[in-house]
Task: structure prediction
Amino acid sequence: MRLDVKFSLMTLFSSIFLVVTILSITIVGANHSITTNIENSNESLLSGKRGLIQKMTSMAHQIAETVETEEEAIRELSAVRYNKGSGYFFAYKKIGSDYYFSFHGTKARLNGKKTNILKPDIKGFAFRKALIDAAERNDGGGFAEYHYQNPKSKVISKKIAFAKKLKKWGWYIVTGVYMDDIAKEIEQIKKQNIKNRNSMIFDIIMISLAVLFVAIAMSILFVRKVSGTLLVQSTEVSSLAVSTTEVANTIESAGRSFSSSTTDQSASLEETSASLEQLDKMIKENMESSNSTSDAVEYVQKIADESNTAMAETLEAIEDIIKSNSDIEELSKVIQEIGNKTSIIDEIVFQTKLLSFNASVEAERAGEHGRGFAVVAQEVGNLAKMSGKAAQEISEIVNESVVKSERIVVDNKNKVTRGNELVKNTALKLKEIETHTNSVATKMKNIVSASKEQSLGISQINQAVQSIDSAVQVNVSSAEGVAIVGKELVGYSNELSHIAYELKSAITGSK
Result:
């Protein structure tokens, strides 16, 4: 067989073998990569879901701790949804020896209804008791797995749940995820991986077909042309090998670049996730500060109420003072009456003095017989003087007492008026304090409520970032697979260059 024909057939078979080998290695490597990625994604997703329901239960616990009544807690937690709307909360409560539903996020008709914690699921597992036992064993809560109907798909599915006890009201708060929902997410990740693999295989197949097409064309030209032409074509094969090497290097470089960029994205996502966790921590600290401020406001309200009570007691004391003023006024009137009676005594004294004088005159006229009567008249006169002096002293004392009592009454009235004004002003200020305190309390409640919403939003954003991070990890694995295939293609291109060199040497007969 002629050298050119033999060489052409060998080149054709070698090219076909090379393409088939590259495709086989690519498909096997891609399948292995996607299988590994899916397994890693399954484990990562399941671990992430367990962490998610644990965090969400702690968040629900914090929300319940910040509200004042069970009714408000039931209203807040019944409305919470997460994990694209499939996540919800419910809680049990022990009353006496029986257990009841405190609330149920998707079945409000169960609120307050009695439940049998020993009733098993379809596998015979008493999951309600297991959840309560898990919450009792550990203050931080515990996990339990059981089978229950998914409210969205209406299908009995395995469920992973987390329970934590709220000592405030004796609740056992529970939430969980259904495995069929996780399976849907895994299926989506699997489809994306398969799509990436198919895209990568398609690109490599196109490159390989291009190489095969060029090889076949070269073989046909080798058959039709003479050795001189074959020499020219061997040079072109060598050039093609160089071009193929450049393409392979480009693929390898692109794979490395893609891997580097996706790795950078993964690092950025990790930093974003860490920032979100820090932000979530700051929001929770703000909630704690708001709660402390709310307690302080309640304490101020309590002091204001006590001050109002004290003001009321002060007003009662002022009223007692006013009443005592009335008693003093009555006493003053009595003293004035005494003064009036004293004037009557003065009149009696005057008359007694006049009678004593007349008796003395008559005794003088009687001479010796009237001396005894004169002595009596003199003594009566002395008594009249003494009575007059005493009456005058009593009158002075009465007048002085009346003046003092009137002055005391006036002073008390002025003091009462001033005290009444001060009490009223103080009451007005306390009312303003109460109004502002109530306003601050309302604003603090709004701040706490907004912090809850922010915390929930941050948790949902963090969940989305984790999902994106999972996808980026898949892309990193795919990019590494592309780089590996590109590196292998470089090796095959080098072998093709060596074959072209040997062909040229065989044709020219030189080394």
Observations:
- The chain has a mean pLDDT of 75.
- Residues 352 and 502 are 174 Å apart (CA to CA).
